[in-house]
């Protein structure tokens, strides 16, 4: 395995920095917006186009909030969202750093829109820990679409069989395996050394 691709949410990042709770746990208390309204008006109707790069997050969110929460700006909600979804797994990051020091290249492989991808790399400092990021809005396809894996493979320029992958979503793992990546589903009890060992089985 020459390259390890690493998912973000559910693998590297786990909710609120203070307690690990889901990022919107206190959304209504903090910003006066009900989560069910946000889900119905935004995530269920707009998110697919945003996460695959067809629409931009801030203008679309501004439009939606104008209807469901006129008191709230898109920028305020985006800042709240990103800050409350930024609890890093430092033990895993340390293990990944050891693997990288031994010569394995590390890339993030994640479903993200452009602003949060930049936040992850720049504000959370992941650009210093990974050799790059492949994300859905930049590729135009989200996991588990085969195009996601195909484009990421083409861009690193090595055979699919030389790529390892950890992700918490079973459908993404299955799709990656079908494409030829060595893929292991990540759970809360998984250790990186065990996942790496399983790649060679």
List keywords for this structure.
201 residues, alpha/beta, Rossmann fold, 2 domains, five-stranded parallel β-sheet, 10 helices, globular
Main structural class:
alpha/beta
Number of helices: 10
CATH top-level class of the largest domain? Alpha Beta
CATH topology of the largest domain: Rossmann fold
Lateral arrangement of strands in the main beta sheet:
3-2-1-4-5
| CATH structural architecture of the largest domain | 3-Layer(aba) Sandwich
What does the average pLDDT come to? 97
Secondary-structure element order, as H and E?
EHHHHHEHEHHEHEH
The percent of residues in helical segments reads 40-55%
- Shape designation: globular
**Biggest sheet: strands, sense, closure?**
5 strands, parallel
- What's the name of the CATH homologous superfamily of the largest domain? HAD superfamily/HAD-like
Q: Radius of gyration in whole Å, from Cα?
A: 17 Å
Structure summarized in a few sentences:
With 201 residues, the chain is α/β, with parallel strands linked by helices. It is built from ten helices and five strands. The chain is globular and about 55 Å long.
């Amino acid at each position: 395995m020459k390259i390890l691709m690493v998912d973000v949410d559910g693998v590297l990042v786990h909710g609120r920095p203070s307690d690990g709770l889901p990022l919107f746990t206190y959304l209504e208390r903090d910003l006066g917006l009900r989560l069910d309204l946000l889900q119905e008006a935004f995530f269920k109707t707009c998110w697919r186009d945003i996460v695959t790069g067809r629409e931009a997050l801030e203008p679309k969110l501004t439009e939606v909030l104008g209807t469901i929460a006129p008191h709230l700006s898109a920028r305020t909600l985006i800042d709240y969202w990103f800050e409350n979804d930024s609890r890093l797994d430092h033990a895993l990051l340390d293990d990944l750093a050891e693997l990288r020091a031994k010569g394995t290249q590390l890339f993030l492989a994640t479903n993200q829109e452009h602003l949060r991808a930049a936040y992850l790399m720049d504000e959370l400092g992941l650009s210093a820990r990974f050799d790059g990021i492949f994300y859905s809005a930049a590729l135009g396809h989200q996991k588990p679409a085969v195009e996601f894996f195909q484009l990421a493979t083409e861009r690193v320029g090595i055979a699919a069989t030389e790529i390892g992958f950890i992700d918490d979503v079973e459908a993404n793992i299955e799709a990656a395996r079908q494409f030829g990546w060595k893929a292991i589903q990540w759970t809360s009890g998984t250790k990186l050394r065990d996942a790496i060992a399983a790649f060679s089985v």
